[in-house]
Amino acid sequence: MTNRFPSALYRRGSEPDPRFSLANERTFLAWVRTSLALLAAGVALEALVVPISPGFRLAAAIVFVLLGVTAAVQAWVGWMRTEQALRESEPLRGPSVGLVIVVGVVLAVVLMTLGFIW
Questions:
Q1: CB atoms within 10 A of CB 52
Q2: Is-contact 35 71, C-beta < 8 A?
Q3: Do the Cβ atoms of 37 and 110 come closer than 8 Å?
Q4: Which terminus has fewer CB within 10 Å in the chain: N or C?
Q5: Cα R_g (the chain), whole angstroms
Q6: Which of 112, 7, 95, 114 is CA-nearest to residue 57?
Q7: What pLDDT does 85 receive?
Q8: CA separation (Å) from 23 to 17, 44, 102?
Q9: Which pLDDT value is given to residue 28?
């Protein structure tokens, strides 16, 4: 019996090398930092006086906030999948939303650029 959360994950497989679990945790924290940065960008666009057309500014802010939530979900799901793969000696999967984040940031920047022009 383990007191660690999520207990269903820690009951599976065998305990991996702590270095790998710690690296997985650092990756989780990197995704959390990315999430916070994206959320801050979305809030800043609406909170600060920025010379962007209001419609484009709101659209870019919404994209940034949605991307921030997506990155937070990726942090948790990615950590769980990697920890499970480590415990069961399976191959690691890549991030499932990396391309979504990149396309979303490009979309938000295009919206802001169009807002500057119009």
A1: 21
A2: yes
A3: no
A4: N
A5: 18
A6: 112
A7: 97
A8: 10, 31, 23
A9: 97
Q: Are 100 and 70 in contact (CB under 8 A)?
A: yes
| DSSP SS3 for 80 | helix
Which pLDDT score is estimated for 3?
81
- How many whole angstroms separate alpha carbon 97 and alpha carbon 38? 14
Closest to 27 (Cα-Cα) out of 107, 85, 66: 85
Q: Which residues lie below 8 Å from residue 35, measured CB to CB, with a gap of 6+? A: 68, 69, 71, 72, 75
Profile the chain (118 residues) by mean pLDDT over runs of 10 residues: 81 93 97 98 96 96 98 96 96 89 97 95
Q: How many CB atoms lie within 10 A of CB 82?
A: 21
